[in-house]
Amino acid sequence: MEPKQAAAWDNVMFRTMIECFQDQVVTVHDIEDRARIIYANEAACRHFGVGLETLLTWCPLDFDPTQDEESLSLFLERHRLTGGTTFETLHRVAGGTEIPVEVTANLFEQEGKTLAVCISRDLRPRREAEARMKELERLQAEREGLDRLARFAQCAPGFMYTVEARADGSLAMTYASSGVEDILGLSVQAVLEDIGHIHSRIVPEDRDRILRHKAISARELLPYEEEYRIHHPVKGERWLEARSVPERRKGGATVWHGFLVDITERRRMEETFRFIAQRSWATDGEAFFSAIAHYLGKTLGVDYVVIDRLIRDSELAETVALYARGEDLPNVCYTLAGTPCENVMGRSLCCFPRRVRTLFPDDLMLQDMGVESYAGVPLWDSAGTAIGLIAVMHGKPMAETESVTALLQLVATRVAAALERDRSERQLKAREQEFRSLVEHSPDTVARYDRDCRRIYANPRLVAEAGVPLSELLGKTPAEFPGGESARAYQAKIRQVFEAGVPEEFELSWKTAQGSDLVSHVRLTPEFGVDGEVMHALAVGRDITEIDAYRRRIHHMAFFDTLTGLPNREMLNKRIRQAMDAASGPGRQFALMMLDLDRFKEINDTLGHGVGDLLLEKAAYRLLGAVRSGDTVARLGGDEFAVLVPDPAGGQELATLAGRMLGAFAEPFLIEGRELFVSASLGIALYPRDCTGIETLFRYADSAMYHAKRQGRNNFQFYSADLTARASERMRIESALRRALGRDELELYFQSQIDMTSGTIVGAEALLRWNRLGHGVMLPCKFIPVAEETGLIVGIGEWVLARACEAAVAWNGRRERPLSVAVNLSTRQFILNDLAGTVRRILDETGCRPEWLELEITESLLLEDSREIRSTLEAFDRMGLSIAIDDFGTGYSALSYLHRFPVKRIKIDRSFVHGVPSDRRKSELVKAMISISQALGLEVLAEGVETPQQAVYLQAHGCRLAQGYLFGVPQPLLAFDALMGEDWSAFS
Q: Which of 264, 307, 323, 522 has CB 3.0 to 4.6 Å from 239, enough for a Cys bridge?
């Protein structure tokens, strides 16, 4: 076969093979001609939605939105080198849709050209399958998490509980785990029968505070977190930590689910950290030991505390502090043999929780003091030698030995350091001639400086810690080695010793040659010459790196948030005060931004606090990346953050910054393999434009933030004075509304509903009015939103139902044809109580028949389509009540609910009736609504009928019932009674 014939045969075979790929997109590209398509199969035409002639004119720039001229050139060059690859990209097809695809490209040579065969696969089916698999894995993980949570409740430390605040204001514990017996010394049955047993345990000074915070938690549905003290019948005074999350139940009750743990040991440790950080041998001298002994005695509640130093080869012990029931006793020397203190030596600790006098009958001191229990720990110097001990003794058996020994071990290091310091100073004063031998073997660093602050001696410890040869230390000032700000300040302190001739102390933070960070407590002592002048300064340093870490930890706990590492409220207040000082000049200002994550509680409630904490950490990180370098981002608690913006250029810069912060939340958060979409709301207040006080500044920024939430969330708002005015007015309305029922200020008006065919009144809508004292009659639009927000709508709604039913009973007692009364229901009434039970009770109490009562609901309520709402509406239907949809057509209309729910009537909103018959569009809409209702067998009532022309149009198109000013304005009960005799047959 000739070469040309072979090539033709190959082309035919190649095309036949490609056409077999009916479900895969195959294209051939000329690499030399910008990868233009020179061949495509039918699947490619279907994929791109264009014909073959059009497709053969395309190159990747025409259908791949990820490519441009430069990137395409680089892409093709890489393909020439590799001979082909598999990659993912996007295809833009006809209509503009971008489809994710996986492309496998292979290069080959034909007739001197470099061609690429590309097989493209649509990735959407595979990604959908992967998404379904992830969802299955998520559901399985949730099920496993619930199982673990159930097991955790049985073995968790402390105890878990559920507390309910009932509608009558009483508190009751409805669940308690078995841990209550250990934490409170109470049985589970006792706390379930009467929560007062728990309250009686609480220290009176803390009781009012926690009850007050419990009320705030119930009112504002905020997490409840408190630490307080109790009197345990066996363990004495204990610190507890309570954490719980409230939720509102139907009927207005508030329920907290939480846990209670004993944090006495943690509190003791924290207090001890703070105490020892404030005490040192260098500043307090021998009083240091007495202070430690008093602290241990009061904290542990023991009768005696002794701190001893060992003398004469550890055969004798000499007390340096002896605490006895609140007093200091004179120091004594005694023999260790035959005492429990002898057992302490050579051990890490020694404890005799009971009958210690029986175990050591030769110890006369134990007999004289009536000691029943004993615990002690040795004191080790830096070389690992026992130099003393700390022991506590008590006249009763010791209940919590572990906490006692843990506290002793915590203070032992600091006391041992002080005891060793005391010993060193005694030896230095007693044997000055042995100074060099002593310092050569000292665990402390020792250096001597001349009047130029140059180091003329360094002991081996200092050489070892510095990590450099002695020659590099001598002749250098601290500023030259180790160098740094701390070393320069240390050098200035040395100069001060030379000038004043008195000892000084300094804490030097420095780096070794190997880069290790050390903190040394250095005591500087002047050395005088024969002429009385200071000739040298002796520096003795002790490594306190660990103690310094403890102090830093305590400082961080005080001023920074433990979860996110951001400054807390205390640190933010400090920086705000600094910003106030900086903004005291003319034209200077700063801004405070308050930011709150939208619907964060839903994430905590559904996914757990662990996920919530991870979300807060990531949110903090994004905020730090969005602000300027000089701005302060702080976490105030929960999901609330604040940003201090010093000296902004103006409102536009603040708006840009706020937009950048909100934009930081645009991308989803990936937490534990799950994407979470969270937005934020932000409020901005300026100092001193808006206010001049810190608390007011916080309040104004917070007010602006909540205004942003009311504007739909995911936006920012600047503070303005009318926000405070509106908030104050809402508070005044709420306060007055809470007293309105008791003052008999609420009143029902009634507006007639007319059968336009016969001209008779067939019913009335009950409309609420508030005769507010000093303000006249208020319409519902002024106060119902406040009642909805505060939950007052539940009580008000019951009152309206009862009065409306009483009116219906009064009317229908003297009529042959009964009238129905229509009452509007709030969505909150469905959520916050047993609405069906309430309606049934009111019907029974008033004697109102169900067919006399019509309940009006909104479209938005039906769109929720929850099981509870459906159940309530079906209960109404079974009772014989009529259900009407109010303001039909103004909400998110979904006609499917008209047959899913037991609806009897729709009320066409007045906004549609107003344009009839002059507005053709509205007239057609009204006609369509009537037709739909008739097709579904529903009654139709038109609201807001004001003109005869409207009434005639409505009748002509099948609407029989109407309500509006044409037939009468809303009237009080007595006036409406008189109206019922009027005749409206003129409109029939």
A: 264
What is the pLDDT averaged over residues 599-624?
84
The yes-or-no verdict on residue 75 having pLDDT over 90 is no
Distance separating alpha carbons of residues 905 and 854, to the nearest angstrom: 9
Tokens for 805, please give them: 């039913």
For residue 404, the SS3 value is: helix
Find, among 820, 853, 745, 833, the residue nearest to 791 by Cα. 833
Q: What are the phi and psi torsion angles at 424 (to 5°)?
A: -60, -45
Structure-block tokens of residue 688: 């001193």
Phi/psi of residue 84, each to 5°? 135, 165
Distance CA 371, CA 121 (A): 86
User: What's the whole-number average pLDDT of the chain?
Assistant: 84
Q: Enter the tokens of residue 635.
A: 């976490």
Buried b (16+ CB within 10 A) or exposed e, 400-418: beebbbbbbebbbebbbbb
Sign of the dihedral defined by the CA atoms of residues 549, 555, 556, 558, in that order:
positive
Phi-psi region for residue 124, left (φ > 0), alpha (ψ -120 to 50) or beta? Answer: alpha
CA 646 – CA 627 distance, rounded (Å): 11
Question: Tokens representing 874?
Answer: 């079906």
Mean pLDDT of 906-916: 89
Cβ-contact 753, 765 below 8 angstroms: yes
For 448, phi and psi rounded to 5 degrees? -125, 135
State the Cα–Cα distance between residues 50 and 637, nearest whole angstrom.
Answer: 58
The C-alpha torsion from 412 through 415 and 417 to 419, rounded to 10°, is -130
Distance of CA 47 to the CA centre of its chain: 48
Dihedral sign for Cα 438, 344, 280, 478, please.
positive
Residues 6+ apart with CB under 8 A from 558: 570
CB neighbour burial string for 514-528, b if at least 16 within 10 angstroms, e if fewer: eeeebbbbbbbbbee
Four-CA torsion 667, 672, 676, 682, nearest 10 degrees: -70
- Pair 419, 388: CB distance under 8 Å: yes
Backbone angles phi, psi at 378, to 5 degrees: -75, 160
| Cβ-proximal residues to 636 (8 Å cutoff; 6+ apart), any chain | 568, 569, 572, 642
State pLDDT tens for residues 945-960: 999 999 999 999 999 9
Answer whether 164's CB lies under 8 Å from 195's CB: no
The answer on pLDDT for 911 being more than 50 is yes
Whether residue 460 is preceded by a cis peptide bond, meaning omega within 30 degrees of 0, is no
pLDDT at 620: 92
Prior bond of 785 cis (ω within 30°): no
Token pair in block for residue 342: 């002898």
SS3 percent helix, strand, coil of the chain, rounded to 5, is 45, 25, 30
Query: Do 415 and 379 contact (CB within 8 A), yes or no?
Result: yes
Q: Nearest to residue 769, comparing CAs of 798, 721, 791, 737?
A: 737
Is residue 14 scored above 60 in pLDDT? Answer: no
Its pTM stands at: 0.38
Q: Which residues contact 521 (CB under 8 A, 6 or more apart)?
A: 280, 282, 505, 506, 507, 541, 542, 544
Distance CA 722, CA 734 (A): 18
Nearest to 512 by CA among 438, 445, 442, 414: 445
For 79-106, what is the mean pLDDT? 88
**What phi and psi, each to the nearest 5 degrees, are found at residue 885?**
-95, 115
Distance CA 412, CA 609 (A): 38
Q: Can you tell me the distance from the alpha carbon of 685 to that of 591, in angstroms, rounded to the nearest whole number?
A: 6
Ramachandran category for residue 432: left, alpha or beta (phi over 0 → left; psi -120 to 50 → alpha):
alpha
